[in-house]
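If it is no trouble, might I ask you for a protein's amino acid sequence along with its C-alpha cells?
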Amino acid sequence: MPYDSDPRTPRFPKERIDRLTGPLQRFVRVEAAGGVVLVLCTVVALVVANSPLGPAYHHFWATEVGIQVGRFRLVHSLEHWINDGLMVLFFFVVGLEVKREVVLGELRDPRRAALPIVAALGGMVVPAAIYLALQGGGPAARGWGIPMATDIAFVVGCLALLGPRVPSGLRIMLLSLAIADDIGAILVIAIGYSAGVYPVPLLLGCSGIGVVLALRYLGVRAFGMYTLIGLLIWLAFLHSGIHTTVAGVILGLLTPARPYFDTTLFSGFLGHANDFLHGDAWDREHDRAGRVRALGRATRERVSPVEYLESVLHPWVGFVILPIFALANAGVVVNMGQLGDPVARAVAISLILGKPIGILLFSWLAVRANLARLPQGVGWPAIVGGGILAGIGFTMALFIGGLALDGAARDAAKVGILGASTVAAGVGMIVLFWTLPAPGAGRRSLEL
C-alpha cells in the first residue's frame, strides 16, 4: 500500500494544486499505467512518421543540440541525447533493480533463482541462434542481440491486466527472468555493440568508478556528490567507445542495497527527536532548521539508497524517459514491403517463437535435472504463456537495434520488433488467460 493511501497516515494541508496533481498521482500508481503511456507514445510516433508530417518529425529528432566552450564541443542530435543521455537513467534504474534482486530478492537464493536465470539464458540463446540462422553471414547478422531482451514495463502491464488470476510465483518468475534478461542485454551491449575503445577517456571513467568506491568506503552518503561524479563518469564513457548505458548500470550496481540505520537505532533517534520537538527546548533552540534537516536525513537513511532512488526515479523513467525514447525511436515509416523483409522476418520469428521455445526448453531441462523447480501453482502451460509474453522486446530491442543496424535494415528491424511485440503481448495474454483460471478454480497442469 502506498504511504499516503494508508488511512492512518497524517495528511499534509490541502492546497489548490492538489486538485490537479491528485488524479495524476493516482494514475502513476496504477501498475499498468507505464505500459499504457508507452503504447500511446509508440502509436503517436508511428502515426506521425507515416503522415505528411513524417519528414518534419525525423528532422526534429535530428536537430543538433549541445554546448561549446572554447575547443570543447559537446553537440549531438536530440535522438543521440535521448539514447546516450536520458536512457542512462533507465539503465541506472535497471542496475538498481538487479542489485536489489541479487542482495534482497529472488536472485539471492540460488535454488529459487535457478529457474528464472536458466530460463532467461534459454530466452537469449535460442532467439539469437534463430536470428543468425535466418540471416546467415549477411550484413544484418550484427543484429543478433535484438531479440534477446524482454521489456519489463510491458510485461508488468500485461500481468496487471490479467489481475489476480496470475499466481505470485509466476509473476515473480517472469520479473526475475526479465531482470536476468537485462543483465544479459547489458553484457551484449558492452561486448558486442561498443565502438573502438579509447584508452584515456575509459581510464578516466574507471577512475571515477574508483572514486565512488572510495567514497562508499569512507561512508560518504551525500547524493549530490555521487550525482556530480556520476555525470563525469558518463561524460568519460561518452568519449570512450564503451556505451554510456554500461556506466549507468555499473553505478546502479554500486548503490548500497541496505539501509544505514537499523530499526533499533532509528527508533532511538526518532524517540529523542519526538521528545525534543514536543518539549520546551524546541522554543529555545536557535538551530531548529538544522534539527529538522537531521531528522529528515535520519528518516531517509532508514531505507536503503537503492529503495529510495528506485522510488524517486521510477516515475520519471516510466512516464518521461521511456515515452520520450518511444517517440524518438518507434517512428518508422511502414510499408507492406517491409513486412516481408528478411531482417523484419528474422526479428519477428526470433521473438515470437525463439523466446518461448528457449524459455520452455531450458526450464524443462533445469527441472528434469533437479537444478530448479516450478513455482507453486504454476504448470507448464503457464510457462508457455509466460515465455510468449517474454517475446515483448520493445524498449531493449529497439535500443539494441539502433546500436547494431543502420539505414533500411534498422527500419526493417523496428517493424519486426513492433509487430512481434504486439503479437507476443496478445497471444501471451490469451494463453495465460486460458491456462490460469480465476482464483478459486483449479489450475491446469501439463507434464512434459
In short: The two ends are 39 Å apart (CA to CA). The domain at 32-192+306-435 is CATH 1.20.1530.10 (Na+/H+ antiporter like fold). The chain has a mean pLDDT of 82.
